[in-house]
Amino acid sequence: VLDPTLYLVTDTALSAPRRVPEVVAAAVAGGVTCVQVRDKSASRRELLALTRAVQAVLAPTPHVALIVNDAVDVALITGADGVHVGQDDLPPAEVRALIGPDRLLGFSVSDPEELAVALALPAGTLDLVGIGPVRGTPTKPDAGRPLGLGGVRELAAAVRAAGLTTVAIGGIDTGNAADVVAAGVDGVCVVSAICAAADPAAAARELRQAVERGRTAVPGR
Amino acid sequence: VLDPTLYLVTDTALSAPRRVPEVVAAAVAGGVTCVQVRDKSASRRELLALTRAVQAVLAPTPHVALIVNDAVDVALITGADGVHVGQDDLPPAEVRALIGPDRLLGFSVSDPEELAVALALPAGTLDLVGIGPVRGTPTKPDAGRPLGLGGVRELAAAVRAAGLTTVAIGGIDTGNAADVVAAGVDGVCVVSAICAAADPAAAARELRQAVERGRTAVPGR
To answer: Which residues 179-218 of chain B have a CB within 8 Å of chain A?
Structure first.
């Protein structure tokens, strides 16, 4: 039940003064297909409340998966659809053991070495591999060296060859979303392109159109 | 299997340049009866590694319980003996549902209102209530107003009347540990008194002696 086409990762600070659930509601109305709740600076109790608030917003659209960043405990408590972890979070194998076989598990990689580790995990560990950053982004200053479209193409091909879903993240906006999708990913993750947009619904609509344009540019998809 | 007599809460920065597992080993040799791994600034992956390292140190002393601060996911992955949560962490009822009936669950309160909320939880939710700070402490600048010995006496009596174990925390050292125990708690939590000590084993020995002195000062215990 994961449609990675347009994958929103929330950012509490970039959403301000609007609240995250309000931005999520607008983004889903505009065409977002998956929502990851991320707030590394929130306490666990705040993150639980935020996740529940986003879950309430998504209740009428069960086809939009709810993913929790890092916080496996919060995902288990809320019954979220999945968890996404990065290189500094709990290791994917341990997370899979905790969440069971049915929930979705995503994992971020930023270079071929990290991808090789991800693809060497036992079958069934990962559902999705996030690759990035596509280009430099102020949202995540600690992200690795930008991949560029060539890097996205290379990593996406390897993920797809392994039978996993792949999304790109980091510096994606309406200007480059089509090209990123044409490079071979199943969808694009955005943070600031929606959370910091004056009109998140309109931003999501434009991004969705860009993704569809990118897809038609890829033969056989 | 929780002996709260002398309860060490680890602090990575205060332990430096020594590593936390090394300090824990010395502290247990000196008489610590329970160890809580706490590192709010560690990534989840770092916290997992730290917890496993402390667990390895505690393997020869199974009577010394291993408790994980806040990170329920890490506690579940490592099979720790329990979890301790504060007011900003996941709510105790949700944590109890996640960890099952057998693991230990502790909860921090800093005033009579927070304690009333804790004692209103369903029976079986909590095993231990931590009360504090006893006095001002640089370790946790965001802790509430110091309770003093009178506050400790009042809150400890309420916790014990509810049939739960109680420990005091915050500014406890060899100079006041006996008085704190005489005020009615089952044990004392220390952070800097051991982690920042030149000789953690000696510090633990002295604290343990102080606790025993405090116990003999309480009639009928």
So the answer is: none
B40 catalytic? Reply is no
Active-site residue among B108, B192, B205, B208? B108
Q: What is the CA radius of gyration of chain B?
A: 16
> How far is residue A32's CA from residue A201's CA, in Å, rounded to a whole number?
9
pLDDT digit string, tens, across residues B7-18: 999 999 999 999
Out of B45, B72, B85, name the one closest to residue A88 (CB). Answer: B45
pLDDT digits (tens, 9 = 90+) for A181-197: 999 999 999 999 999 99
Among candidate residues B103, B140, B205, B208, the one labeled active-site is B140
Give tens-digit pLDDT for A15-44: 999 999 999 999 999 999 999 999 999 999
Query: What residue has token string 């619904």?
Result: A201
Integer Cα distance of B56 and B35 in angstroms: 12
Reading the block at residue B221, the tokens are 């215990």
Closest by alpha carbon to B11, among B28, B27, B23?
B23
**Spatial CB neighbours of B100, under 8 Å, sequence gap ≥ 6:** none
